[in-house]
Write a structure and sequence with these properties.
Helix content: over 70%
Number of domains: 1
Radius of gyration: 22 Å
Structural class: mainly alpha
CATH topology: Growth Hormone, Chain: A
CATH superfamily: MFS general substrate transporter like domains
CATH class: Mainly Alpha
Distance between the termini: 35 Å
Number of helices: 19
Shape: globular
Number of strands: 0
Order of helices and strands: HHHHHHHHHHHHHHHHHHH
Length: 464
């Protein structure tokens, strides 16, 4: 295997494990909290504790988000014989994986027997988890411009990564119910989604996440070129690098609207199948459909952007997702209509992500030309920052919807009122649709950084 293929494969495997971690933390942790963690307490106490944990998760993740650019600055200032990204990738990946397993427990019974101590310990563990995850997340996605300055090779690396991400995230969706159910049965003899099942699910996710981070560190190599040499970055320079890069700022604004809308829907699809359709087993279709479509869509990205443009691919993808919202909200429990909606919803996701990611990646050289300073990790930190912000909000959305619609504890589809169904559709589909429209307008009107413009910028920088 030649160096470029080895690098793409190693980076793609890293993305596979990374998105398993992200899906587990941003979606399935809150399902564990709302459905299992506080079983054994009365309904009022459970609702109160769910509210507290949800608020802590959202609050901690939103506060730590503001430190992400500083983390990017720390990474940019790192100098080791292994490069500036790999140490943070390995350490951040290892520690965050161990702590992920910890939060999928009741802390030796404290969740139901000593709620105050549980909350204190949970806050400490979650702060540490999110901090180390941030270092790993930013280091991982910031590597792309360091692995090649060629727009074509960057696209190949990013495509490999997104294929890995699609398999990781969608594979998690496909496997979560069987894994949790199997280990619950193995440990308790019950065919259900119990606490022991969720623990082993988190353990598997942690092993895959930490292990693939090591593979990425082993199989990639940073390019040492004149273009990448830079001086130390101060805290002042960190925020200047973002605020003075207009294309980065507009892309950020478009992407955060999309990301929040996307996770607001994906985070509650489990509830959609369980409480609206009334068929939890059919939820595995989400994983199957999204995985297959990811495998089909990701390799199409280079060809589609060559024929059309990133802008057209991005906006067309949003239109497809808007059509899916229309089908979801009017499916009335019809599984066939829901499947068509899932196809329209998941097919463009990878294409939209890659369009935004490649624009943000090209903003490294755009910002370098504009300010005279190259900031790889700082610039690329904004993409995981936005996904973390969306993930934090998704945690809050899940908790809010679960409580507001009565979808907690041992509730079944028969316990959900018409009002509860309408509330669910409003927050899961209608509000996200508005955000999607806003995202497409911003990207179409304000983002002009194309691949051709990026190639011209690189040529100017290499001559200077």
């Amino acid at each position: 295997m030649n160096g470029s293929k080895k690098q793409r494969l190693s980076y793609g495997l890293g993305a596979f494990g990374h998105d398993i971690f992200y899906a587990t933390l941003s979606t399935y942790f809150m399902i564990f909290v709302t459905s299992t963690l506080f079983n054994g307490t009365d309904k009022a106490t459970a609702a109160k504790m769910i509210g507290i944990v949800t608020s802590l998760v959202v609050g901690i993740r939103l506060v730590e988000i503001f430190f992400d650019p500083i983390i990017g600055g720390i990474i940019d200032n790192t100098v080791t014989k292994h490069g500036k990204f790999k140490p943070w990738l390995v350490v951040g990946g290892g520690v965050s994986s161990v702590l992920l397993v910890a939060i999928f427990t009741n802390f030796f019974g404290l969740a139901t027997h000593n709620s105050t101590l549980y909350i204190v310990l949970f806050a400490i563990v979650f702060i540490l988890l999110d901090s180390f995850y941030s270092f790993k997340d930013i280091a991982f996605w910031s590597m792309i411009p360091a692995l090649s300055s060629s727009a074509k090779e960057r696209k190949n690396i990013a495509t490999s990564a997104r294929l890995g991400s699609a398999l990781g995230a969608n594979g998690t969706t496909l496997a979560v119910v069987p894994i949790v159910t199997f280990f619950t049965w193995l440990m308790t003899g019950r065919h259900a989604q119990g606490a022991s099942g969720w623990f082993f699910f988190a353990l598997i996710a942690a092993i895959l996440s930490g292990g693939t981070a090591l593979i990425t560190a082993w199989g990639t190599k940073e390019v040492d070129s004149k273009l990448r040499r830079q001086s130390k970055t101060s805290i002042k320079d960190v925020f200047k690098a973002i605020l003075k890069n207009d294309q980065l700022m507009w892309t950020m604004l478009a992407y955060i609207a999309y990301a929040v809308a996307n996770v607001a829907t994906t985070a509650v699809l489990f509830y959609y199948f369980k409480f609206i359709i009334g068929n939890t087993a059919a939820f595995s279709l989400v994983g199957v459909i999204s995985a297959i479509l990811g495998i089909i869509a990701v390799p199409m990205f280079p060809t589609l952007t060559k024929i059309f443009s990133r802008k057209i691919v991005y906006v067309a993808g949003i239109v497809s997702m808007l059509l899916s919202y229309l089908l979801f909200s009017h499916a009335g429990g019809n599984l066939g209509v829901t499947v068509v909606g899932l196809i329209l919803f998941y097919f463009p996701q990878q294409l939209i992500f890659l369009s935004a990611l490649m624009t943000i990646t090209d903003c490294v050289e755009y910002g370098q030309l504009k300010t005279g300073v190259r900031n790889e990790a700082i610039t690329l930190s904004v993409r995981p920052l936005l996904d973390k912000m969306a993930g934090a909000l998704s945690n809050g959305i899940v908790g809010f919807i679960a409580v507001a619609c009565g979808m907690t504890g041992n509730a079944t589809v028969h316990d959900i009122t018409k009002q509860g169904q309408h509330t669910f559709i409003l927050y899961a589909f209608y509000i996200p649709a508005v955000l999607m429209i806003i995202s497409s307008i911003i990207y179409a009107k304000k983002v002009h950084l194309s691949e051709d413009e990026h190639d011209e910028i690189v040529a100017v920088l290499e001559k200077s």
